[in-house]
Amino acid sequence: MSILRSLIVLVVIIAGVFLVMGYVGGLRTGQVLNRPDIASSDTAQQARERGAEIGEKVGAAAAKVEETLDESALTAKIKAKMALDDSVKARAISVTTRGTTVTLSGTVDTKAEHDRALALARETDGVTKVIDDLHTR
Which of 30, 70, 113, 129 is a plausible cystine mate for 108, CB 3.0–4.6 Å? Predict the structure, then answer.
């Protein structure tokens, strides 16, 4: 999963670099700002400011992608643990993750299954809080 995360972050950063290079290149050739009254130092400053804005947006997008991948990884870990545990019916339990908080919802057959599902979620690395929305038949 870390290889996929690294690959996505790299693609986002490369896309941002190409956007910045294209914008700055356009400024140098006069394609973006075709105004002779703007001095080249003003144009360069505008390009730097625009590049910084784009860089911030790329950084925010990369952070969001990484957060989403982390949430998906936590969800997958918990679902895998449940699927491998004979005392829990993983298909009947929904796992959603927001940050490091996991919510378990659905209907279980017994109190033991309920407790085991919560324990599996709580003992998963990276989980800081488990919200119990499980119901027993």
Answer: 113
Tell me, yes or no, if the pTM score tops 0.85.
no
| Residues 56, 32: Cα–Cα separation, whole Å | 21
Which of 105, 81, 83, 86 shows the shortest CA–CA distance to 94? 105
CA-to-CA distance for 20 and 8, rounded, in angstroms? 18
**What is the tens place of the pLDDT at every residue in 4-60?**
666 676 666 776 666 555 554 554 544 445 555 555 667 778 888 888 888 888 888
C-alpha distances in angstroms, 33 versus 21, 40, 111? 15, 11, 69
Structurally, how many domains does the chain consist of?
A: 2
Please check whether residues 102 and 125 belong to one and the same domain: yes
